[in-house]
Amino acid sequence: MGKKNKNHPAKKSRKPKTGSHPGRLNDSSVPVSIGSFRAQKLLAPLTAGFVSWFEDSEGEPDEALACLQIAGVALGELLDATPMNNITSFAFGDVTAVLDSLGEELGEDVAVVAGALHLYLDFLFETDRWSGTVEDYEQVHALFGDEEISVPELPEIFIPEIPLAEELAAFEAMPLTAHVTALLAWLGAGRPVTSTGVLRLADIEQAAACVGVAAIGTRQRPATDQHAIPGLETPADDPSDGGPLKVRSMNDVPVLNELWAAMLEAGLLDVRSTKAVPGEVGRAWTEASDPVRLEAYRSLATGYLASLEEAVATTMMLGPSLWLMHKMVLTLGCGPTPLPVERIEMAGNSPKPGGDDDGFMLMAIAGTAMDHFRLMAELGLVRIDTHVTVPEHMVRSVEEVFAVDLWDDEGHFALGSRAEEAIGAQRTATHESDAPVYRLKVMLVGSKPPVWRRLLVPSDSRLDDLHRLIQMAFFWDDSHLHAFQKDGYRGTMYSCDPEGSGPWDDVHVHECGVVLSAVLGIEGDAIDYTYDFGDDWRHRVTLEKVLEANTNQLVPSCTAGRGMAPFEDAGGVWGWAEKIEAANDAQHPEHAQCRQWLGLEEGHVLDPKEFNKDEINEMLRILG
């Protein structure tokens, strides 16, 4: 009997949001309306309760916060469109009208908003916060339905026997291999890189052409779709209009960036301090013996597919269901009964919200999966005609990538050792290299009592990796801007938004291209990390000790710490201290209001010294 998984994406998606590609919640360009502002204010006192409820359903705190923020999109529209003065009850007709309106602007992305609103509705009802009637709840709940996705028992993958010459020819005919060959030829004896280890802006056009992408480097910040769901924005400078893609970094050309990373791990590429050169395997790419070349081709194809599936599995909210659909389609594509394209596309033909069919999430999953399969076909990983099939020479790669099931026997997406083995293999291999390990102390500046964390981090991590580590270690939800700064007020700044849409004037270095060892070289070096330029949470990151790499050591990890991490939007270190005082002092004039805002139950005393290392490490394990 096949597994069945309830269509509750955020509950099932236990992966925390790790940011980066294809966007982030905090990168929103959606105009702020009065309704949106009111919705966020009204959601604040419900946040702690929602996170707790979400965790009881085996979710993760940052996934809960992401879900709540997206639900706020619909709640803001409801407050703008109706005379509602609360967000704990709403009418069926109002919800359908708002989702229909959002559907016209967002297309199939409205499914993400609908899914988040569905979870918020269930939270209200199950925790007795729903202020409407039971009949009202049942009417609205019926809009979303409770469809289940049936997953058939998948057949075993059998790796075919292919003559060496035939398999070599198949790999050499792949666009993926052609792209790598073109990149290696373009690199020649080497190409200059910036101090952050990425190709110069002037070289992006030629490098992107090697992978079949028309792109030009520009310092101008591209516009985004003003109606996109936060985290699902599409650049306005889309090459679909016939013009080149305008990018500010090599990281903005996904195929080039992912191939670059795959080449590094396969030994095809070596990035030195001032230039990138072909690696040992890359230098013999076209001249090695047939068996050596075949192994290199297999390694590249498997590594690239693994990196694609890791990105899919960690996609916010839809990730687990998308990964499952990928596994189903690609596994069947390896055998005699591949899945017809028509069947996949039919799953995405659900009507708009308010219709008779309630498969909103299935619509988004099917549509997104087909987009992914088309991209795979462009690289030669799969073939698409009337069916989605896997070429014989790629069957081995599919079997290796999907060998470990990320779903447990109860239909939950697993975060334990099996998930680490399956989607963390590439990153783990890097972290178990000879790169030293940094012991960092991250102190929240001005906190009383002191709040700090001691972290073990690979020295070859990038600053965007460190950003995510700090977010997890302090339970921030990554809903505000952030930046790193080296050498004080006038020092170099690094951020994910280097063109200056934040509260700064100078152009920043992009954090995605900066390796940790480039800014923290010797023991005692430090860098500042500021999160939320309103509350101004400033963290001092100090390199305490440089340790030798140890394959038995869990990295990244938290080895020590002190103090409870403040709540988001608490007003900075002083505001947080005041809230602790008010929450624990029954005579304080803001006692009741503050306890409600913090979501504290009766009799619960807020302990500012509370610290749970194990809880942090459970979250950090997915980055290992």
Query: In angstroms, what separates the terminal alpha carbons?
Result: 34 Å
Average pLDDT, rounded to a whole number, is 75
What percent strand? 5-15%
Radius of gyration: 25 Å
Structural class category? alpha+beta
Q: Determine the number of helices (DSSP H or I, runs of at least 4 residues).
A: 24
Number of E strands: 17
- Which stretches of 5+ consecutive residues score pLDDT under 50? 1-32, 146-150, 221-240, 350-360, 407-432
Main sheet characteristics:
8 strands, mixed
Quaternary: single chain
Global shape: globular
Describe the protein.
- This protein is of the alpha+beta class and 624 residues long.
- Among the domains are: 4-150, no CATH class; 433-564 and 609-623, Structural Genomics Hypothetical 15.5 Kd Protein In mrcA-pckA Intergenic Region, Chain A.
- The protein contains 24 helices and 17 strands.
- The strands form five sheets. The chain has an eight-stranded mixed sheet with strand order 14-13-12-15-16-10-11-17. It has a three-stranded antiparallel sheet with strand order 3-7-6.
- A hairpin with a 5-residue loop joins β15 (526-531) and β16 (537-547).
- The two termini are 34 Å apart.
- Residues 437-614 form the Plasmid pRiA4b Orf3-like domain.
- This is Plasmid pRiA4b Orf3-like domain-containing protein.
